[in-house]
Amino acid sequence: MVEKGKDQIKVEATPVREANPGQPPQKEGWGVENLPYPDKVALIQTRWDLCTGCGTCEMACSMKHFGVIHRELSRIRIFRYLLPIPKSVQNVCCQCSEKERECQKACPLDPPVIHFDKEKLHMVVDTERCLGSSCAKCQEACPASVPRFYPPEVDYPLVCDLCEVNGERKPQCVEVCPNFALEYMAPQFPQHLERIHPDQKAEYLSKRLYPLPKDKIQIPPEELFKEEK
Amino acid sequence: MKFQLLEINLSTKEKKVVDVSQDIRQYLGGRGYGAKLMWDRVPQGADPLGEENILYIGVGPITGFLGAVTSFNAKSPLTLRGGTSHMNGHFGVELIYAGYNAGILLTGKSPKPVYLYIKNDDVEIRDAAHLWGKMNLAAQQTLHRELRKELDDQNFRLMTIGPAGEHLVRNAAISHEFYHFAARLGMGAVMGSKNLKAIAVRGTKAPAYSYPEEIYEIVTKFHKDARLKKAQDRRWGHNLSVSGRYYNTTEGVKNKQLGWDPICDLSNSLILEQQYKLWNDSCNYCHTGCKVPSFRRNPPLGPTIAELRHDNAGGWDANVMLPGYDVQVYLTSYVDELGLDSEDVSGVVAWMMECYQRGLISREELNGIDLTWGNLPAICRLLKKITYRDGIGDILAEGLKLAPLRLKKEMAPYAITTKGIAITSYEPRGSMQDAIDLAVVPVGELHAGRGVPKRVVCDSLTICAFLRHNIQEVFGLDQFARDMLHGACGWEVSQEEWLDMVRRGAYMERCYCIREGYLPVRDDMMPDRFFEETIYNKYGEPKILKREEFLEKREKTYFAFELDRNGIPLKENLKKLGMEFVIPPLEKTLPNWD
Question: Same domain, yes or no, for B386 and B439?
């Protein structure tokens, strides 16, 4: 910024991530991965086109929350489709917009076990009161089938808490994703529009392969080279 | 950590889970343990396509970290000796999550077509009549539709064989998620001989790793420090090497008749990236994403997708004089659909093309196929004949060890092979190191130095072959392996013990092959063409292999592998490693062994 009337030119330093003030950025580079973390409502945006399906995010999530390497305990999941070639897409809670929190609406208990915490700015689950996988109304209600159970060890819905500890949010999956296929940022549009079922995500991606149908890899040579005898 | 092997007898439908922790501590798993199982379970001289052969689908203690290699081990129908083949993807790690962290051992033969269904402890042998005869993609999609009840089942990992495996074509491959292949050495034919069409696995249990935080630290450090690998391989995948190889005269042209041809310049990886690339895809916990599917849609060949890399597309390049990626994308996916080993069958086709060029085989003998160089429709028709063992295809389906015996003997010298496996996407005259690397593998021509003991141990552990140099740079392979074994299994492995593990796997494979008739000094040879015919590269420089130099280097390599000058392990070394049991049977096959 140039201050008028002075010879000196003052340049503001590049902001570092607020999640770790004073520390150098975790990832080097000038891209979106180096932007400061948001301080208001935020979510993990998934970029399915960039996802290579390595599953490092799943490892990071289970390590952060349970201290083990266990895909099934991860709050972010990778699903793999044949379109006809393999393609992976992510599935994670997008902390839906206020009027579209279907899981919260569906919870049979009052107040709802699964709800948005306005202090912590993410979905929370009251694990003590939860009825467990025998209920699973939240999973049914979520259009993307995000809340997951892993009974008997984890009999409450696993949803993304943005790795919040004492008010500090630092999603580990975003930190480790080698492909920048996950972005932690303030919502760019109503969050619930991020909430697309993995099947539907795969369907959209398969349209890129037009005119190839999903169950065919090519026009078979018998059809293509018919005239040659 | 306990290691559990799922053992299934397909003849009697008997299933059991065996604790093999003792053996895994010795042989690690994958390729090394597979060789041990072959030694123990397959009688000497057994028919590879008979009931006595086994199929070991192996994983290792650290499978799933930095690529999830699955190792397939069986007596090879192609070489009639030990066989091993490796595929990447997600199959191996799913098997571990299902609780079988020492793999699956298949014995016997099912009376009718079946597939294997595994979901955690639930193991079933199911009827596969409706899948039999289907191409790879159709079989995988049909099976997937059947198994998917809810979203969680989406991640069922499947592997299938195509029509080639069903018809016992000796170089048939096993396919997983369409473009991951365990292609080499006829593993698909072994699976077909057991009447096993597919395996579907889903696991929701986690292995009890001893120190997960150590593993997590190593893997994330690797992702960060091996960034260059990612930057390079993400653009073109492993097709990049083809472009460079033509200029080093290390890539075959016209069945090795030429050193260079203008057609080679069409293999330009930039074209692949800019015109065809779709996106990146990677294996378990690997940051690289070196799978780069290519998509073409324009006429005349219409829409096709394929994943081109050195191994599968290299053989369908200048070696059969096909021009550029447009054609390769079409042909490679056709071969994948049929379930053939792209690399090996392209060698068979190139051999036939040269025989046709020289007038050694007529158009009538080829069932009316005009097999001129680069003739795409003709190649497709011949591939179909090979797959369904129709006419001339019935002979060619026997592979380069057995087929030349059934054709005119003048044709045999043009079969470019060692130990019955085609050398297609390599041209040893450009590099003595390549020639040695290809020659000294006991199981046959497996490229990229796959005979070196430290490579065998990578396949036993199992870590991705493409990451081995980067692991060496970032941690050093020995240190990495010992740290990972500590993190995963809690073993304190000393450097000396680690080196013994390295030796044990490599010796075991070599000993098994020797028992089945492998004689290193006789078999570790290159075809005469490489020593007798000079080729010229683009700049007119002559390239040829010198026989004396080759033999001298080969002997040095044997010494480097801790073998004697004839490529046989020393008895004292075997005793030191606790492998005395191999000595009496080997003494019978090697009368002059001391």
Answer: no
* B123 DSSP β-pair partners: B118
pLDDT of residue A14 exceeding 80: no
Give yes or no for a contact between B270 and B389, defined as CB atoms under 8 angstroms apart.
no
Nearest CA in chain B to A199: B151
Q: ipTM higher than 0.90? A: yes
- Within 10 A of A130 (CB to CB), how many other CB atoms are there? 18
CATH of the domain at B541: 1.10.599.10
Residues of chain B with pLDDT under 70: none
CA–CA min distance A11, chain B (Å): 31
Select A41-200's CATH number: 3.40.1000, 1.10.10, 2.60.40, 3.30.70: 3.30.70
Q: What is the pTM of this model?
A: 0.93
Write out chain A residues lying below 8 Å of B300, CB-based. 224
Q: Judge: A82–B97 Cβ closer than 8 Å, yes or no.
A: no
Kindly list the domain boundaries of chain A, sorted by start residue: 41-200
Structural domain harbouring B265: 229-422
Q: What is the pLDDT of residue A27?
A: 54
- Judge: A225–B287 Cβ closer than 8 Å, yes or no: no
Using the beta-carbon criterion (under 8 Å), do A209 and B284 form an inter-chain contact?
Answer: no
Residue from B337, B14, B46 nearest B164 by CA: B337
Per the DSSP assignment, residues forming a β-bridge with B17 are B6
Q: Whose CA is closest to B501, among B31, B42, B56?
A: B31
Q: Is residue B210 part of a domain?
A: no
How many domains are there within chain B?
3
Q: How is residue B36 written in tokens?
A: 């041990």
